[in-house]
Amino acid sequence: DIKGVLFDLDGVIADTAKYHYLAWREVAKRYDIELCEGFNENLKGVSRRESLEKILGIKNIVLPEEEFKSVLKEKNELYINYLEELGEDSILPGIKEFLIDLKRSNKRVAVASASKNAPYILEKLELLKYIDYIADPGSIERGKPEPDIFLDAARGIGLKTDEVVGIEDSQAGVDALYRANMLSIGIGDLRNSLYNLESTGELLDKKTRRLIFKG
Ligand code: G6P
Ligand code: MG
Asked: CA–CA separation, 208 vs 215, rounded Å?
């Protein structure tokens, strides 16, 4: 039986994936790189550092470490500025209700996001009370699609891999769950998931309810 749910944050709990994209677009432009939504899919679930490597890789640009670091800092400042706009309606459809249902049914909830801004965002959205554990990406060496962060998240809520299901909007994330031997629900058109939903609103539908709340 499923005893807990592991949530990705950006694009699953909060409508923040668009802010990452806008911030990266601005940064990329300085190097004459035009980011498009298709390429952006490769950045979802990927750490800040690795994202910049991928972006600069488009033009085979390699920056000295110092400049690289200052670009990372700048990207995060742009991103944090966008986060000023965060409010109740930044919580994606159905998520709050779903979290309330999980709490009521004594299911455990963990967040497994590559974002170092996750605790800040969850606090700002007043969702911390629904969450039992937040994995710290800073202390996990291998990012998604490696399974480590989901293994840590399951451990954090005291559950085994076959007692949890992960919810992800990125291919890297679904692949990480797959490698962790965990069930996954994809948001969007993803490979390797148990099934995909078009939107988080569908988490309240029968299919997901049967999987998580049965028994
Ligand atoms: C998530 C997002 C990525 C982002 C990463 C790091 O995985 O999907 O787009 O690059 O977190 O986020 P951070 O807030 O630490 O830069
Ligand atoms: Mg995501």
From this structure: 13
